[in-house]
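pinging the channel bc i need a second pair of eyes. not urgent but kinda urgent?? the chain im working w is below, pasted from the shared doc
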Amino acid sequence: MHYELYYWTGIQSRGEFIRLALEDAGAAYTDMARVHGDAVMQPFLDGRMDGLQPFAPPFVRTGRQVVAQVSAILDLLAPELGLVPDAASRRQQALQLQATIADLVAEVHDTHHPIAASQYYEDQMREAKARAATMRAERLPRFLGYFENVLKHNGGRHPLREHSYVDLSLFQLMSGLDYMFPRRMQALWPSLPLLRALQERVERRPTIAAYLASGRRLAFNTNGIFRHYPELDGED
């Protein structure tokens, strides 16, 4: 099976959750916008292509099927890629965890764009600093504490007791938060040993290590979802 991944060039953001699954499984895929430019996505976004019209990237085309939304894409691909347990109940658990990750990712975006995504960060800095203070103090401990407990109650190594796409998504989430909030994450990590160990194990997986060392893995930057602004990390 060959997959087509559609996502904006120049950033990791939500597309990276899909990319990590494809890379981990050694799947054959084409990162379409990187090959053909961002304009390749427009016919899909305009509803001029077969399949359900996506609201926004990322979306994946496999055969004649087009699927959007990170959680839905991973739920579709994971059985084919061997990245979810076979039992329907475990697949549902994986989807629930991925949707919770997506909730936090949305809050991360709204930290630096609390007023409007269409406005520049510089136009909403005061509001962003207030939102970031709540994120650092309340939301990060709550979300990450939840995932730490999930690991604890499932044997300590994997959220689903075996390797799955949720491991990869937690790796990406934590890597992004390390970049965005280095001071706050350093303070939180002693209370999250299982998450830190999971992050390190995923980073050492042969296919992931090769991907991270390649040019296909873009660096985090201040155009994506995870953005490092020192003033949002509690620095003046």
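so Residues 88-205 form a domain with the Glutathione S-transferase Yfyf (Class Pi); Chain A, domain 2 fold (CATH 1.20.1050.10). and Residues 125-153 form the longest helix (29 residues). — does that match what u expected or am i reading it wrong
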